[in-house]
Design goal:
Blueprint: E1 26-31, E2 36-42, E3 47-53, H1 60-68, H2 82-85, E4 92-97, E5 106-110, E6 116-121, E7 124-130, E8 137-143, E9 146-153, E10 159-167, E11 173-182, E12 190-193, E13 196-198, H3 200-211, H4 217-241, E14 247-249, E15 255-259, E16 265-270, E17 277-280, E18 283-286, E19 291-298, E20 302-310, E21 315-321, E22 324-329, E23 335-342, H5 352-366
Antiparallel strand pairs: 1-2, 2-3, 4-5, 5-6, 6-7, 8-9, 9-10, 10-11, 11-12, 12-13, 14-15, 15-16, 16-19, 17-18, 19-20, 20-21, 21-22, 22-23
Length: 370
C-alpha cells in the first residue's frame, strides 16, 4: 500500500535587488613633494582616490570598497564585477581578514564551496584563492603564528583530506603541506602528512594542533559539523559492514528493515512507489519515483542519522542530528551545512524523507501491515 504524505511549509521571502550603471576613467598624477602616486577612478556621482605612498602600504580598504561598489572589476577578469560574483548560488559578502600575512586585509566572498578570497595588489583586486567544488572546499585557519588557507575534501566516502598553504603576500607562497586520512575499506586507514605516510597518533596530533583551539569562528563551526558528519559516517559504515548479520524484516509492502541482534532497527530501505507526494509551500512535488535509505543510531532509542534519497538520475544526502539536517548534499554534489540544524521543508523537495525516516522507525516497530 502507498503512504500518502503531506508536508506543508509556509514561508516568506524578501528579495532586495540593487544595481547601478557606471563609467570608468583613470588618470594619474605625481607629486614631487610627497613622492605619492594617485589613481583616480571617476564614477557617475563620485570619485575615489586610492593613494600609494612610496615605500608604504597601499590603501587597500578603499580599493576593496571600490570593488564592492562595482566601480572597478577584477584585475584577472575585467568583465567580472562584485555584483556578478554575488549572483553565484549561495554567495554572501564575508569579512576582511589578512589571509596572506602581509599586513593588509583580503576580502572574503562566501558560497557553497567556501567562495573566493580577493587580494589587492598594485591597486587592483585579484583572485587570491577560490573553492574548487566538494573535493576542494575553501577555508582558512590560524596555525603556528600565521594564517593558512586550505582546501578540504570531507564529503566523499573513504577520505578526509586537507591541503594547506601559507603566504607572505598574495603572490608569495612560503609553505604548504597535505594532511590526509584515507580509509577506502573503512578498516585500514592510511595517514599522510607532508607527502609521507605517518601514524594515526601523528595525524591526530597535527590535526589537533590545527583545529583543536577554535582559532576562528568559521573554522570552529566547520569543525563542529565535520565532527558530527564523521561520526555519522562511522556509524553508517558499521551498519553496512554488519548488514549480513542483521535480521531482515518486511514491516510493509515495498519496505525492508534490518534489525541488529538486540532487535534495534538500524536501516530501512523504502522502495519507489511507497510514498506518493509531498507538498512544499504551494508546489506539489511527486516523490513516488524516489527510493530512500534510512540509517539509525541507537542510544536508548533508535535515532535517524542519515537519509539517502535517489532515483535513476538524482541523488540527495541528508546528515541528521536531533531530527534536523546539519549537512545537505544535492544531486550536483553541492554541500550546504546548517550549524543550527535546518527544519524539514526548508531545504529541498526531497527533505520530506527526513520526516518519513523518523516516522518509519515507529511503523517498523509496529510490525507488518495487515
Amino acid at each position: 500500500m502507498k503512504r500518502y504524505m503531506t508536508i506543508l511549509l509556509i514561508f516568506g521571502m524578501l528579495s532586495v535587488l540593487a544595481g547601478c550603471g557606471f563609467e570608468e576613467t583613470e588618470e594619474s598624477r605625481t607629486s614631487a613633494e610627497s613622492e605619492t602616486k594617485f589613481t583616480r577612478v571617476e564614477t557617475e556621482n563620485k570619485e575615489i582616490e586610492v593613494a600609494e605612498v612610496k615605500g608604504t602600504l597601499r590603501n587597500t580598504e578603499k580599493v576593496l570598497d571600490a570593488f564592492i561598489n562595482n566601480e572597478i572589476s577584477l584585475a584577472d577578469n575585467e568583465t567580472t564585477y562584485f555584483k556578478d560574483m554575488m549572483q553565484e548560488e549561495g554567495a554572501e559578502l564575508g569579512e576582511r581578514v589578512d589571509l596572506d600575512n602581509d599586513g593588509e586585509n583580503e576580502l572574503i566572498i562566501t558560497n557553497y564551496y567556501g567562495g573566493y578570497y580577493l587580494d589587492v595588489r598594485d591597486d587592483k583586486v585579484w583572485k587570491f584563492a577560490q573553492g574548487e567544488g566538494t573535493a576542494g572546499m575553501l577555508h582558512y585557519v590560524e596555525y603556528d603564528g600565521a594564517i593558512w588557507i586550505y582546501h578540504s575534501d570531507t564529503t566523499h566516502a573513504g577520505r578526509q583530506t586537507y591541503y594547506f598553504e601559507k603566504y607572505k603576500g598574495g603572490d608569495n607562497l612560503v609553505d604548504s603541506f597535505d594532511l590526509k586520512d584515507e580509509y577506502w575499506d573503512d578498516v585500514n586507514h592510511v595517514y599522510t602528512y607532508r607527502g609521507k605516510e605517518t601514524t594515526k597518533e601523528e595525524y591526530d596530533r597535527i590535526f589537533g594542533e590545527i583545529f583543536g583551539n577554535g582559532n576562528t569562528e568559521v573554522v570552529s563551526e566547520t569543525s563542529d559539523i565535520e565532527s558530527e558528519v564523521e561520526n555519522i559516517r562511522k556509524i553508517y559504515y558499521s551498519i553496512q559492514n554488519n548488514l549480513s548479520s542483521y535480521k531482515v524484516s518486511e514491516p510493509a509492502s515495498l519496505m525492508t528493515a534490518y534489525l541488529d541482534k538486540e532487535g534495534h532497527c538500524r536501516k530501512i530501505i523504502a522502495q519507489k512507489g511507497l510514498y506518493y507526494e509531498g507538498i512544499i509551500g504551494d508546489a506539489t512535488e511527486a516523490i513516488e519515483n524516489y527510493s530512500a535509505e534510512y540509517y539509525y543510531d541507537y542510544n536508548d532509542m533508535e535515532e535517524l542519522i542519515f537519509v539517502f534519497v535517489y532515483d535513476e538520475d538524482e541523488e540527495y544526502r541528508y546528515y541528521v542530528k536531533d531530527g534536523k539536517c546539519i549537512r545537505y548534499i544535492n544531486t550536483n554534489g553541492v554541500v550546504t551545512d546548517y550549524p543550527e540544524g535546518a527544519a524539514v521543508g526548508t531545504i529541498a523537495h526531497t527533505d520530506c524523507f527526513i520526516s518519513t525516516g523518523i516516522m518509519e522507525i515507529h511503523w517498523a516497530s509496529a510490525g507488518p501491515e495487515e
